[in-house]
Amino acid sequence: MTSPRVGVxxxxxxxxxxxxxxxxxxxxxxxxxxxxxxxxxxxxxIPGGExxxxxxxxxxxxxxxxxRAARAAGMPMYGSCxxxxxxxxxxEDARPDQEFVAGIDMTVRRNAFxxxxxxxxxxxxxxxxxGEPLRAVFIRAPWxxxxxxxxDVLARVSRGDDDTIVAVRQGPLLATAFHPELTGDxxxxxxxxxxxxxxx
Length: 200
Ligand code: GLN
Known about the structure:
This protein is of the alpha/beta class and about 200 residues long. About 25% of the residues lie in helices and about 35% in strands. It has helices at about 15-25, 35-40, 50-60, 65-70, 80-85, 185-200, and strands at about 5-10, 30, 45, 75-80, 90, 105-110, 120-125, 135-140, 145, 150-160, 160-170, 175. Glutamine binds near residues 49 and 111.
């Protein structure tokens, strides 16, 4: 499969930027806003945005359980920022009624960097994508507080004395606290498209 069909969950968030990055990474990129569209893709990106809104609208639209079923059936998924929160098994500072797709054995803290600074950029070394450090944009980003044994840590950033995890992979699931779709560097999307190719 040279050009896998990769969807971007189009409930809320920066959908267009992910579509462009996926196309650049060699995928056939399509929006996913219904169960029919979900069933027609080989992999799915859950974009950045606001995870409480994505959660609420996914429930209202009848997409939350199909998303969980697709994930459980092994569909590769990549979540950036709010999407990372959606893929976490445990979320600190979630809204009490917030629901998740889950799947990655990690504890994520919402708006974690927000206490220090709302948004920032950093050069992040990600050996899994190769090459130079990647310019990463963090916007009211979560961080990963802990991971289980099945999770590969792909990247960390140092902030003061802290060294926090900002990119992880567990099998067909990938998540970043930052937004690689905003900087015109398609390497993270290339990694994901390669994961989708292998799985399909
Ligand atoms: N703070 C947002 C949330 O909790 C995530 C921010 C983002 O995706 N840029 O969902």
